[in-house]
């Protein structure tokens, strides 16, 4: 008689659930193992469990085994035991699998942790422990596509490690709703964090949430008044200049990140380099497609480079989705080398192999930049231009290209780079590829025929608290006027609320959205006067308005970003539209409202100067730019360190440059 058959015969006719002898043995073994575990007799408990697994493989057996193995220091084996428990598919299955994943992760078994964790993705959306493990692994492997799922559970967790990881997962995309929600969650938990306050205010300014800006900005100003400039060190340089017009403080923004060693720049300049008869210019950007604002400015200049003196190469990291929108002009801009799939070091190596003499970064501290390429000694002369209006923090750059307006005397001390100042304006403009305005009737744009129309088409984030307060004062003093305002949808309610709370009726604010470029150019003449923003002026926006014949009113700024419109207005021959300061800006807007004949004069001047003055003279601009490159290269050839350069102006052009 076998051990198994005796009890079966003895229990014949009884309840079929009556325990068999093996089941009795299993129960006894489990009970004994549990007691020994409670007493700290882990080796004895393990022996009992080894016997037990020969006759029973219940989830509770594997759970107890995992606990015993942990006490004995066998974490990887414990992880496998928890995994076996989870695979039994009971009510606690997900919990046991989570424990297995945590242990594998703690042991460095990332592949095993992921194999368990990926089927738990749905649970990870609400479980910060699971989210932490999966996100940590994907972040370490630079697999960022899935990371957005984990920002919510990590940012709402009370665990500081989870919150820190949530912060690391934030992108630089201001339109990322997951980023916005995560920052709000984190800031609510850490209201004294200057880093999180800075991030929170970025999103508040993006949505024009003036109530929140007014709530938290006084803390910032109080710290700055006390000389605590280090609170700015964690700010994004780009978003910093949207609110801070003090170039002394602008230099602090972004200074928290690791700066490059000064020895790198000296070594780069002294590296062997084969100079050729022609100067080899390399342009670095993610914006090489003709519908981007940068290329609406720059493409004519690229096409006009003198092929007898210059070779032009575009080091392109433009997104494929944007390349698909290009209409085929790229072929005219220079030789193109794609570097989007290369590391920074590999891209720099390619640039050196091409023998580039002057590498010009066109992005600066803006979205999708590859600035760190310049920290890998890519070229003997490295330059920042056009993309970012300020100094380039923590990057090995020799020169910043500007003009006497945006980079006036006295500003040098606030820049890491040396100045290369073009004589008339730093901003190129393309008069050949952009559409000419023919105008759209006001009634077709929802504008009243009899009102004086102030207008702004700048990005919503540029409508700072100071700017909107100036506009409120202008509207109060010009009762027959309206403000025609381009504003993103999720900011419109906040903008209207600010006007209404200041006594400006909502029917005096006409909101519009972005539209196709040709239509945008055509609608601009329907306004009477463009109102500039501060401290971040219109850049491309201002030149578009001037191109369309719409006068733009600005005032003298205090840093690069707030001096751009002054540069453009001087280059088109209308310095009268640059007021001395904020109060003068309001007064001049009111004066023009009351003297509309002056608006007619300004429109006429814009019409006459469009193809005569320097602002839209792409060929003249290109010759000045090329002379700047030549002056940089002359110094480099002589092994002289970079120094401030002022490019001499060509003789005034006679006649029109219109094609």
UniProtKB/TrEMBL annotation:
GO terms for molecular function: transferase activity. Coiled coil: none annotated. Residues 275-427, 441-625 form the O-GlcNAc transferase C-terminal domain. Pfam families: Glyco_transf_41 (PF13844). Keywords: Repeat, TPR repeat, Transferase. Pathway: Protein modification; protein glycosylation. This is Glycosyl transferase. It comes from Sinorhizobium chiapasense.
């Amino acid at each position: 008689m076998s051990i198994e058959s005796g009890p079966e015969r003895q229990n014949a006719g009884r309840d079929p659930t009556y325990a068999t002898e093996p089941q009795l043995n299993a129960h006894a073994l489990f009970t004994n193992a549990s007691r020994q575990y409670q007493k700290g007799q882990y080796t004895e408990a393990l022996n009992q469990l080894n016997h037990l697994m020969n006759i029973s493989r219940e989830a509770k057996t594997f759970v107890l085994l995992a606990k015993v193995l942990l006490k004995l220091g066998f974490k990887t084996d414990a992880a496998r035991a928890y995994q076996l428990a989870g695979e039994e598919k009971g009510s606690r299955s997900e919990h046991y699998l989570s424990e297995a994943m945590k242990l594998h992760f703690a042991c460095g078994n990332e592949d095993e942790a992921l194999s368990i964790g990926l089927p738990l993705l749905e649970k990870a959306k609400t479980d910060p422990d699971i989210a932490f493990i999966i996100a940590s692994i994907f972040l370490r492997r630079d697999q960022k596509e899935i990371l957005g799922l984990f920002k919510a559970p990590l940012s709402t967790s009370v665990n500081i490690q989870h919150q820190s990881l949530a912060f690391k997962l934030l992108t630089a995309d201001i339109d990322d709703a997951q980023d916005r929600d995560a920052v709000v969650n984190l800031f609510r938990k850490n209201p004294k964090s200057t880093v999180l306050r800075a991030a929170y205010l970025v999103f508040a300014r993006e949505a024009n949430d003036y109530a929140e800006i007014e709530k938290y900005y006084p803390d910032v100003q109080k710290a700055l008044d006390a000389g605590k400039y280090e609170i700015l060190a964690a700010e994004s340089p780009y978003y910093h200049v949207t609110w801070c017009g003090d170039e002394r403080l602008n230099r602090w923004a972004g200074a928290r990140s690791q700066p490059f060693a000064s020895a790198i720049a000296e070594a780069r300049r002294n590296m062997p380099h084969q100079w050729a008869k022609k100067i080899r210019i390399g342009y670095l950007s993610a914006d090489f497609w003709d519908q981007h604002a940068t290329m609406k400015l720059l493409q004519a200049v690229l096409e006009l480079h003198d092929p007898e003196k210059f070779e032009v190469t575009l080091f392109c990291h433009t997104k494929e989705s944007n390349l698909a929108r290009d209409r085929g002009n790229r072929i005219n801009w220079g030789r193109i080398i794609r570097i989007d799939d290369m590391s920074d070091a590999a891209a720099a190596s390619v640039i050196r192999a091409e023998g580039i003499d002057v590498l010009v970064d066109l992005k600066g501290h803006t979205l999708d930049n590859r600035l760190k390429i310049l920290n890998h000694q890519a070229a003997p002369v490295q330059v920042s231009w056009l993309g970012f209006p300020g100094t380039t923090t923590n990057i090995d750059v020799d020169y910043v290209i500007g003009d006497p307006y945006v980079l006036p005397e006295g500003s040098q001390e606030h820049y890491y780079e040396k100045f290369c100042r073009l004589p008339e304006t730093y901003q190129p403009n393309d008069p050949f590829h952009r559409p000419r305005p023919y105008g759209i009737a006001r009634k077709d744009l929802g504008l009243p025929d009899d009102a004086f129309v102030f207008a702004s088409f700048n990005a919503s984030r540029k409508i700072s608290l100071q700017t909107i307060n100036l506009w409120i004062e202008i509207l109060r003093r010009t009762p027959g006027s309206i403000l025609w305002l381009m504003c993103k949808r999720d900011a419109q309610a906040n903008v209207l609320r600010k006007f209404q709370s200041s006594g400006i009726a909502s029917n005096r604010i006409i909101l519009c959205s972005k539209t196709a470029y040709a239509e945008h150019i055509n609608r601009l003449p329907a306004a009477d006067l463009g109102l500039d923003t501060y401290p971040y002026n219109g850049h491309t926006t201002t030149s578009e308005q001037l191109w369309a014949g719409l006068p733009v009113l600005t005032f003298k700024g205090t840093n690069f970003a707030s001096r751009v419109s002054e540069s453009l207005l001087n280059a088109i021959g209308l310095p009268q539209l640059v007021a001395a300061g904020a109060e003068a800006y309001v007064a001049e807007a009111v004066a023009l409202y009351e003297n509309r004949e002056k608006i007619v004069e300004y429109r006429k001047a814009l019409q006459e100067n469009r193809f005569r003055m320097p602002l839209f003279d792409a060929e003249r601009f290109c010759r000045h730019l090329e002379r700047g490159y030549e002056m940089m290269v002359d110094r480099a050839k002589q092994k002289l360190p970079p120094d401030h350069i002022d490019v001499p102006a060509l003789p005034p052009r006679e006649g029109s440059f219109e094609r």
